[in-house]
Design a protein that fits this description.
Length: 798
């Protein structure tokens, strides 16, 4: 048989047979990881249903039913509705993302019955022969059977230096090829691989590292700590109030506890994220980590790799300048041989292949292109060694002799490579002392049509642009100028980057264009920008961008780029079009700004409920609101409007700390409701109204102030918001005079003088809120001054 089963070796020229592949698939020796990258429907139902607040609400509803007041259990139905909406939205998002992920499915070339066939990674079986080229992420564990390559194992080991792999050596899933081509025999698949969890982690849709979600979790934590002691004390004190039955004590205590629960805030945050992800999916942007939506909205520094972002990634041969006319034929033959025999078909090679289609030179030793070395070469039988690469790397100090020509070509936006000849055998560590320059080849980058408009958008939004490229800085600067990059005349050759990190931090602030940047230097530049206080996004499509994408706060990969970049990026542009980024930024801003708005609506209720509960505990008085009343006001003034507001357009730049901003918007309204409710309670013995009138006054006052808060939150207004506010106000006013609603809410129609008093109190409340807001802003200003000074000191030390 072709394959040596005894030694476990697959024939290197034939591969596995279809019969062998089918048998190994049936035996489970196939590259399938059992865990799903997204939650199952069962897990979604479980996580949305089995929550602390859901359990607490069910327990409170049972207590209310036992107390004989089932009409006050309406709050439980709202929780059930919220749960169903959350499950529906998450399942819908799951299906959308899984469909979209198919477009980003990784394929490999497997040798089957003497021919290479394109298969999905999940179809690889044990013993397969797989071909991996430069830019491919190795998706299995295996042994190199033929050829050789430079492998980057930084995702596994953290070491940035490439490892050279030859026949017989092991390669692991999660590493990727940066130069060369290898044939690998699969030795482990699926869950048996060394890094089987790596791909799952990079594809998981997660909420981790979200500043917004961590702030909301803090809020939930604080509320939980308050609910337990305050709830117990409220229950006990309500039982000991003179003339209060145990049933009314339970109802009063439940009213206070229900008011403290911000039941919709987590749901709405999740929905906002999920809807944002689905909208991005419709624009062919795959979100691999949910926090990326939020982080991109906060970005103030965008780093671009020129190739594949502001340019199309394709090159055209513009000029071949042979130094001596007698060498023209030999130069053409050498370029043809290099174009057709080098293993990695990069943009330079593809451009040369458009010019040269035939060569009969026989390669003897091949050195693939490396982004660190910046040249490639081949030793041919009887034709010597020919190298093609960056002039400054091949010619070293001699490059200055040709500086004028290279600079003139670079200023035209052309990339210049040198073709050199030597009689020495090609090797990675070969000496470049005895080489002869034969020709310069100029390649022209094609600038994307959408680049200028996209870069103008980021400029208007206050996002600084840095171009970080492996090409000549003068060439990059010329192309950046055509694309509309601001300060494109400030460029720097990364070969001379300062070793001192403090000096680098200063340089990156003053420079817009970096050329001749190695992968490790890209990472250092981004780290320096982060140390300067920037939130950095990085786009890239090549293997040399992986380290930088990992270092950036938000890594953005092109789907047309290497598999390695796609695996580490948080966002993948499936159309490989840089112009899709403004859509992602707008979606992220909408999520954060809208959640900040609606969160204050929910937390107002939490804060005034805590304050009123403490008031009731200290003074041994009945809790002022029934659960059904709070549910009614919360649904009408908070729940329904928030579902519209959280999805409304809102693209203003994100600023400030989420938690600080929400508390600034929340505390004035909550204090005002508390003071006005206490005022009505204190007026009761003076004005002599009964409990039903008191509850009616308090409910109308609560609804009126919540309506003012809703108006404040929805500012600035648009047609949709005005319609939402108007409908909410009309429903609230009309419902106060519907007898069936009055019976459920335990209120009544009041005498005209009471309504006049309420209008005055509600009007006064607006000015009280503004006064509290002014005090709060002054207070936060005092707190921020020492923090700002401390931050400046820290930056100066850094």
């Amino acid at each position: 048989m072709l394959n040596d089963e005894k030694n476990g070796r697959t024939d290197i020229e034939y591969g596995l047979t279809i019969k062998e592949v089918d048998q190994r698939t049936r035996d489970g020796l196939v590259n399938i990881v059992t865990e799903s990258p997204t939650k199952s429907v069962k897990e979604i139902i479980k996580t949305n249903s089995l929550t602390l607040f859901n359990g607490l609400n069910i327990a409170l509803a049972i207590l209310v039913v036992i107390a004989g007041k089932p009409e006050n259990t309406v709050f439980a139905f709202v929780i059930v509705a919220n749960t169903f909406i959350g499950i529906f939205q998450e399942v819908r998002a799951k299906r959308t993302l899984e469909k979209l992920a198919v477009l980003n499915t990784v394929h490999v070339e497997a040798l089957r019955e003497g021919a290479f066939v394109n298969i999905e990674v999940e179809a690889i079986v044990l013993g397969d022969i797989i071909k991996f080229s430069a830019g491919d992420q190795i998706s299995i564990d295996g042994i190199v059977r033929a050829a050789e390559a430079e492998i980057d194992e930084s995702l596994l080991t953290g070491e940035a230096d490439a490892v050279y792999k030859v026949e017989g050596e092991e390669v692991l899933a999660g590493s990727f090829v940066i130069a060369g081509v290898v044939l690998v025999q699969v030795s482990a698949v699926g869950n048996d691989m060394y890094a089987s969890t790596l791909a799952m982690e990079s594809k998981s849709f997660t909420m981790s590292n979200s500043l917004l979600m961590s702030s909301i979790r803090k809020i939930i934590k604080w509320v939980t700590f308050m609910i337990v002691p305050v709830g117990i004390l409220l229950m006990v004190t309500q039982l000991f109030i003179s003339g209060n039955s145990w049933q009314m004590a339970v109802i009063g205590a439940v009213g206070g506890i229900v008011g403290m629960i911000p039941e919709g805030i987590v749901l709405l945050t999740s929905i906002a994220f999920m809807v944002g992800v689905m909208r991005l999916a419709r624009n062919k942007i795959l979100v691999q980590e949910l926090p990326a939506v939020e982080i991109l909205a906060r970005v103030d520094m965008l780093c671009l790799d020129k190739t594949g972002t502001i340019t199309e990634g394709a090159l055209q041969v513009k000029q071949i300048k042979v130094l001596e006319k007698s060498n023209e034929k030999q130069a053409d033959l050498a370029l043809a041989a290099l174009a057709l025999n080098l293993p990695a078909a990069n943009a330079t090679q593809i451009a040369l292949q458009q010019v040269y289609q035939f060569s009969d030179w026989k390669p003897k030793t091949i050195i693939p292109f490396s982004s660190t070395r910046k040249w490639s070469g081949i030793t041919f039988d009887g034709e010597g060694t020919w190298l093609l690469g960056a002039p400054e790397m091949l010619l070293k100090d001699k490059v200055e002799m040709y500086g004028a020509y290279i600079e003139s070509e670079s200023k035209r936006g052309c990339r210049v490579l040198a073709l050199v000849y030597t009689q020495s055998e090609a090797s990675r560590e070969m000496s470049l002392e005895k080489i002869s320059l034969v020709a310069f080849i100029s390649f022209k980058d094609i600038v994307r049509k959408s680049a200028k408009k996209t870069l103008a958008y980021f400029k208007e939004e206050g996002v600084d642009i840095k171009i970080i490229s492996g090409d000549n800085p003068i060439t990059v600067a010329a192309i950046a100028k055509i694309a509309g990059v601001e300060n494109s005349d400030t460029y720097f050759d990364a070969r001379f980057l300062p070793a001192d990190f403090d000096e680098l931090k200063k340089l990156v602030e003053q420079t817009s264009i970096f050329g001749r940047v190695s992968p490790e230097q890209k990472k250092r530049i981004i780290k320096a920008l982060q140390q300067n206080g920037h939130t950095v996004a990085m786009t890239g499509d090549g293997v040399n961008d992986v380290l930088a994408l990992k270092q950036a706060d938000c890594g953005i990969a092109m789907a047309s780029g290497s598999e390695a970049t796609r695996s580490v990026a948080q966002l993948v542009l499936l159309n490989s079009d840089f112009s899709a980024l403004p859509t992602a930024v707008r979606e992220g801003r909408k999520v954060i700004n809208n959640i900040s708005q609606v969160a204050s609506l929910y937390l107002v209720k939490t804060i005034y409920s805590v304050l009123l509960s403490i008031y009731s505990i200290l003074l041994f008085v009945p809790y002022p609101f029934l659960p059904v009343q709070l549910t009614y006001i919360s649904t009408l003034m908070v729940g329904i409007p928030s579902f519209f507001l959280v999805l409304a357009p809102n693209v203003k730049p994100v600023s400030g700390n989420f938690l600080t901003k929400v508390l600034k918007d929340t505390i004035p309204g909550a204090l005002t409701i508390f003071l006005m409710t206490v005022a009505i309670h204190l007026l009761q013995p003076i004005l002599g109204f009964d409990m039903v009138v008191q509850r009616s006054l308090m409910l109308i006052l609560l609804g009126g102030i919540q309506f003012l808060i809703l108006i404040k939150v929805t500012y600035p207004f648009n047609q949709l918001k005005i319609m939402l506010i108007s409908i909410t106000g009309i429903i609230f006013v009309l419902s106060l005079f519907v007898h069936d609603i009055q019976d459920v809410l335990m209120i009544q129609t009041l005498a005209p003088e009471w309504y006049i008093m309420l209008i005055g109190l509600i009007t006064m409340s607006w000015f009280i809120m503004l006064y509290f807001e002014k005090i709060l802003i002054s207070f936060y200003g005092l707190l921020e001054k020492p923090r700002s000074k401390a931050k400046k000191k820290k930056l100066s030390r850094d």
